[in-house]
Amino acid sequence: MKKRRYSIAALLTAASLALAGLTGCTAVITAPMPGAEASPAAGTKEAEVLAPDEEYEEVFAQWKEDAPALNTLVEYVESVTDESSPDYIPPVDRVAVFDMDGTLMGELYPTYLEYYMLAWRILKDPSIEPDEEMLEVGRTLRDCALDKSFPEDMPMQHAIQAARAYSGMTLNEFADFVTEILLRDVDGFEGMTYGECFYLPMVEVVEYLQENDFKCFVCSGSDRFICRTLIEGMLDIPYENIIGMDVALEATNQGETDGLDYLYTDMDDVVRTDQLLIKNLKMNKVLQIAQEIGRQPVLSFGNSSGDCSMHNYTIDNNPYKSAAFMLIADDEVRDYGNAEKAEGLRTRWEEAGYHVISMANDWNTIYGENVVKTGTFHWMEELADDRGVEEAATPEEENAADDAAADEAEATEETEDAADTENADADADTNATEVEETETVETVNKG
Fold first, then answer.
1. Strand, helix or coil at 241?
2. 56, 33 contact by CB (below 8 A)
3. How far out from the chain centre does Cα 187 lie?
């Protein structure tokens, strides 16, 4: 059983009961605990005494009780789900949107999961033959990950080359490729695979909202189909509630035929193409939410500037009470956060009207107690043997190559000498012939 914390209403109830016991008075309880029945009748002097709530205190095992953002969220949910509250939101409009990397799962090991996937696909996967443009991006992903020195346009470079690198794969083949990556151990940690690198406190948030009739959506900058495969088995979010980067799809045998003119048959499958449709970051998240969900969210969760437009769309001009939450990666002990940078972001996010979630101060755990940060990476070793770059020769191979080159040079010199001798002989013959012809002419003229 997970440990849950008390709601504000539960704490008030307990305080009321305690005060009644001290004064000898009979407590009148008007605020039921979540999930409990209301008092028998208004104005009654006796009420059923509710034990400390086992049901509610199980919800947030991975959170610290005094986490400000969590208390804000709980108060919000209790308010908007109470039909007697002026903040009440009908279930149909309880829409919550979540960023993926850095919000629901880790992104600092040492970089985004989808960056690792593409680097491995380009530099190591024997099933494709990348061209120079693709190789350049693969090497940049590899070489810049550890020190975060990516070029400013890396998100778009990645998106374009990812579309090309996975082109031609059926959706099932792509899901199998992603699954194989997810089974690998996470670089920089012990006790966790890539498929398990979810923030457990945020998993609890999703489950809590779903229990209160919120529809949860993922709105990620990562590939939509990566997110679908990644979430399966970890979160109860259906495929149709997952929004992400998109490429165009087509039928196996469709070729250049327009979809309006092509008939899908049992000889076809749905395959990815190399045509990038959208990189789902920043303002594009707002457009995708409006287009695919069709409702303005009332809750938004993110961790970076790429989520600010989504947050503002949620909290600005909303007919319902709304809130936005930003995670800051300030845990340098259990994860690869940067506390100094995170504090600067805290100020920025709070000034923008967002509630800040501190990984270091608000969470009891991040990935689970058995997951340990190692501080060491095998990133460069794993991706070192990229294609298109010849391996360094051994000393023996270098000597053999030098000998072969010397033999070739000697043979070439001998050939050139022989050619020179042959040319000299030919020139001598030509000169002798010319002398003979001249003497013959002179003899004829004398006669």
1. helix
2. yes
3. 15
Q: Which helix (H) or strand (E) holds 416?
A: helix 395-446
- Is the pLDDT at 204 greater than 90? The verdict is yes
pLDDT at position 28 over 80: no
Q: How many CB atoms are located within 10 Å of the residue 129 CB?
A: 9
Its pTM stands at 0.76
In order of start, what are the domains of the chain with their CATH numbers? 1-59 (no CATH), 95-382 (3.40.50.1000)
**CA neighbor of 338 nearest in space, from 346, 330, 327:** 330
**CA nearest 120: which of 398, 404, 381, 309?**
381
Please answer whether residues 281 and 221 qualify as being in contact, where contact means their C-beta atoms are separated by less than 8 angstroms. Answer: yes
13, 70 in Cβ contact below 8 A?
no
Select from 77, 313, 102 the least CA-distant residue to 207.
Answer: 77
CA distances in angstroms from 374 to 272, 305, 365, 379, listed in the order given: 37, 29, 16, 13
What is the rounded CA–CA span in Å between residue 314 and residue 334?
Answer: 31
